[in-house]
Amino acid sequence: MPRPSRFRDVLRIGPVKVGTYFDRRGRDRHAAACTAPGCGFSADYPDRSAAELAARTHQCRP
C-alpha cells in the first residue's frame, strides 16, 4: 500500500516548493522549502500568500 502524500496543492516557484498540509491540531498550514542542494531554507506560514511571497523573494546562498 503506498504511503499517502502529506502535502497537497504543491506549487513550484523556481527552486522553492510551496505546499499545504494539516498540522497536528487539524489546521491548514503552508510550507515553503528550497530544493537546491545545500540551501536549507524552509518555513511554515499560516496563509498561502505569505508562503508564495517567501518563495518568490527567496535567494539561494548555498
Automatic annotation (TrEMBL):
This is Mobile element transfer protein. Pfam families: SpdB (PF05122). It comes from Streptomyces chengmaiensis.
